[in-house]
Structure formats: C-alpha cells, structure tokens
Amino acid sequence: MKISAVLITFNEEKQIAAALESVAWADEIIVVDSESTDATREICEKSGAKVLVQKWIGFSEQKQFAVDNAGHDWIFSLDADERVSHELRSEILAIKEAAVTVDGYKIPRLSIYMNRPIRHGGWYPDWQLRFFDRRKAKWKDLLIHESVEMAKGARTARLSGEIIHHSVENAAHHHRMIGERYAPLAARQMFNNGRRTSPLKIVFAGWFTFIQTYFIKAGFLDGIPGIVIAYFAAHHTFMKHIMLWEMQNAKTPAE
After folding, report:
1. How is domain 3-165 classified at the architecture level of CATH?
2. Cross-strand pairs, 7
3. Inter-residue long-range contacts of 187-192, CB under 8 Å, 24+ positions, other chains counted
4. H/E stretch holding 243
5. Average pLDDT for 174-200
6. Where are the chain's structural domains?
7. What are residue 204's phi and psi, to 5 degrees?
8. What is the pLDDT of residue 167?
9. pTM of the model
C-alpha cells in the first residue's frame, strides 16, 4: 500500500509546516493551494510537497480535486490546522504493512481550545473518515461540514489514534469564523435543502443549543472553555437562523 497525504490551503503560513511534518511518513504529499498571498506555497515546496494551485471552488470540490490529483489510491486527508498524533501515525504505518480488509478508516479528532483538549460538549470523538481508498469513496458535495462518503457496500473500521485539531486561535477568532464563514454557509446549506426558520426558532434555537452543549453533552466538565464553546455554539445557531430568515424573506435570495 502506498499513501498520498492531501491538504488544501489558503494563507496558512502559520500552521502548514506543523501539519506537513505530521504527515512526513506518507509516500507523497499533495497540497492544493487556492492562490495564497503569503508564504504558504513556499513552505510547502521546501518541505517536499507537490503544490498545485487551484482557484477556490468550495471545500468539498477543493478536497476532491486534491484526491483526484494524488498519485496513489489510498488517501489520507488532513486540514492545515490539524496534526497526526504519534499514536495515529503508528497505526497507519502498521496498516501499510498488513493485509487491508476494509476500504476506509474513521479517526477520532481531538480539538484543542484555549490550550485545553476538549472531550465533552459534543466535540469528541468527532469521528472523521480521512483515510480511505479513493476508488470506494468521494467527498460529498456540501457547503459546510464536508465529509467523505463511502460507496455502497464499502467497509470501514475505526482507529484509536487521534487527529489533533487546532482550529481556533482565540475567542475573537472564533467569533469571526462564525460570522464570516460557518453561519453564512450553514444558512445557505439549510436554504438549499429546503429548510425554513421562524421567529420562534430564532428566539429559542440558540438557548436549546446552549443547554444541549453545556448540560446534556456535559460541556461543563471542560471548565471555562466548555462554557465558551457552549456560548459560541448558541451564537452560531442564532446567527444561522437569522441569516436563513433573511434569505427566505428576500425577494431574490442571493446566491
């Protein structure tokens, strides 16, 4: 088995070196860069990665482009803000030397938030299907929370080693990500799927999300980061319903 590690990037000069180092065990590394204006491409090239420049076409499409341009059928997909743990690396290298009996592997993802690993509030284990045979899988066409879809009849297994996720720099960054990326994309995905909201949902959906994240899913066990995560989860829910309301009441909803 030979493995292609694939990543997509845009202005990731602060993160990309560590991500690339964590997949140095792969037989090749493919980076698809969406016209970065910082030193991202130079860092990738110096690491030995093959860099392809592709104008941004969406998360799923960009990742599928990376998969399609890989040299090997077995793919390990990693984001620039993620790292392969030592335990996961060892598991994958063991799989390389063994007889493969499945078509894809789901991997637990552990997020680091406010310098603390988060294991509650619905954030863990956050199973990610990132190691797969591309002949039996593809990225689903979604605007947000893109994921790999296995072909009918394909077999999957779970690994225990983790992907370490460093997605948020600080509270201000988290707030911007919700307002500029996650809520608008989530609202558009909801609208495209035929979902609609109401004044009652706008008022109460955020509160329900906070209760679910902080109490039902035990976010309180993560201390201060837990309550911050619950607050931002509620804020995200509120924002996406407001944006969906604007779309469904616009005379000509913006594309």
Report:
1. Alpha-Beta Complex (3.90)
2. 31
3. 187/239, 187/240, 187/241, 187/243, 187/244, 187/247, 188/143, 188/247, 189/142, 189/143, 189/144, 190/240, 190/244, 191/244, 191/247, 191/248, 191/253, 192/143
4. helix 223-249
5. 96
6. 3-165, 171-249
7. -105, -20
8. 84
9. 0.93
